[in-house]
Design a protein that fits this description.
The chain is 9% helix and 53% strand. The chain is mainly β and 139 residues long. Strands 3-2-1-4-10 form a five-stranded antiparallel β-sheet. It has a five-stranded antiparallel β-sheet with strand order 5-9-6-7-8. Strand 7 and strand 8 form a beta hairpin. The longest helix has 7 residues, at 41-47. The protein is elongated, with a radius of gyration of 15 Å. The mean pLDDT is 96.
């Protein structure tokens, strides 16, 4: 199946913590980084997600925020360090390609935000992704 979701990373589930309705799923990406996905318990059961399962973590580029350094004191579970590889800016929006360990992450942010952060190729950034914005697919 082809998807329009630009950020797709393969990994292995390291743990599943199930609640009444939702589950927190920790995934060790093939690059070695760990991310957390908050998905429904139904999805965990239907996809057969358990520790050791191979999955793809999917994140729409519009759900990736950028900071110029890691952020402390924030509820966002996923902070991935990287370096700006390129920026394609239009009148209102900018698509920022971030080189991260094991690949490239794409963030769609406002052009104003890209300008305010002084983003340019080579600049270090932290990609911030809420756990609720990470979807999982069987690999």
């Amino acid at each position: 199946m082809s998807l329009s979701i630009r950020n797709q990373f393969r990994g292995t589930v390291t743990s599943v913590t199930a609640g009444e309705v939702m589950a927190a799923v920790k995934v060790r990406l093939d690059s070695g980084q760990e991310i957390t996905a908050a998905v429904t318990r139904d999805a965990v059961e239907e996809l057969g997600i358990a520790a050791g399962s191979a999955v793809r973590a999917l994140v729409k580029s519009t759900e990736v925020s950028l900071a110029t350094e890691p952020v402390a004191g924030i509820s966002i579970r996923n902070q991935i360090a990287g370096t700006v590889e390129g920026i394609a800016a239009g009148g209102a929006m900018a698509v920022v390609r971030v080189r991260v360990e094991g690949g490239v992450l794409t963030a769609a942010i406002t052009k104003d935000a890209a300008d305010d952060l002084s983003l340019a190729p080579g600049a270090p950034v932290a990609a911030l992704i809420k756990a609720t914005e990470v979807a999982l697919a069987s690999a």
